[in-house]
Amino acid sequence: MDRRTSYDDDIYAWSQEQAAALRRLAETRRDLPNELDLEHVAEEIEDVGKAELRTVESFLELMLRHLLKIASAPNARPVRHWRDEVALQRRALAKDLKASMRQLIDLDELWDAARRRADASLDEHGDALLPDLPQACPFSLDELTATGFDVESAVARLQEVSAGPRDGSL
Question: What distance in Å separates the CA atoms of residue 165 and residue 151, rounded to the nearest whole number?
Answer without folding.
Answer: 15
